[in-house]
């Protein structure tokens, strides 16, 4: 789609995570309850409906090759990005954190009051991709599970 100024309309459509063990990652994201789509792709790539952008899982080395980037050394430290699971209440944050940890996530940071008036915690998936579970002022979660930002 192109706007009036003949510029493409920006949009984020897919987030692809490089994973070491596609089978284990599929099992993890299935256990979290994300709805897998296009299952005909088998274990080559997995696509999940997240209620917004699609989450894709792809083998780490193949994703690096596709992007023409080296796959080694793999970072062990913070990678400069997080994924987020926005919630409607503090109680939901606690429930999501407990749920994810019960499904094999690793605790990164326990849920806590934030300095901006929110409440958040962090867990990591099997490859260390960090997820923030958060309720934040100005960001509402609607009945459609989508986030709605204050104007």
Automatic annotation (TrEMBL):
Gene3D superfamilies per the UniProt record, alphabetical: 2,3-Dihydroxybiphenyl 1,2-Dioxygenase, domain 1
Signal peptide start and end residues: none
A Pfam family per the record: Glyoxalase
Swiss-Prot/TrEMBL keywords: Lyase
Domain of life of the native organism: Bacteria
GO molecular function per UniProt: lyase activity
Alphabetical list of InterPro entries matching this protein: Glyas_Bleomycin-R_OHBP_Dase, Glyas_Fos-R_dOase_dom, VOC_core
Keyword Lyase tagged: yes
Span of domain VOC: 11-136
Record protein name field: Lactoylglutathione lyase
Origin species: Bradyrhizobium nanningense
């Amino acid at each position: 789609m192109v706007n009036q100024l003949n510029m493409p309309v920006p949009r984020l459509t897919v987030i692809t995570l490089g994973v070491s063990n596609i089978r284990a990652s599929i099992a993890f994201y299935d256990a979290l309850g994300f709805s897998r789509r296009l299952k005909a792709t088998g274990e080559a790539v997995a696509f999940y409906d997240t209620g917004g952008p699609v989450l894709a899982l792809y083998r780490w080395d193949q994703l690096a090759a596709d992007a023409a980037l080296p796959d080694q050394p793999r970072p062990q430290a913070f990678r400069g990005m997080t994924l987020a699971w926005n919630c409607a209440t503090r109680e939901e944050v606690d429930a999501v954190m407990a749920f994810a940890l019960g499904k094999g996530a690793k605790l990164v940071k326990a849920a806590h009051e934030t300095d901006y008036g929110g409440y958040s915690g962090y867990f990591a998936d099997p490859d260390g991709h960090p997820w923030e579970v958060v309720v934040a002022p100005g960001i509402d979660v609607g009945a459609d599970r989508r986030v709605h930002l204050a104007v």
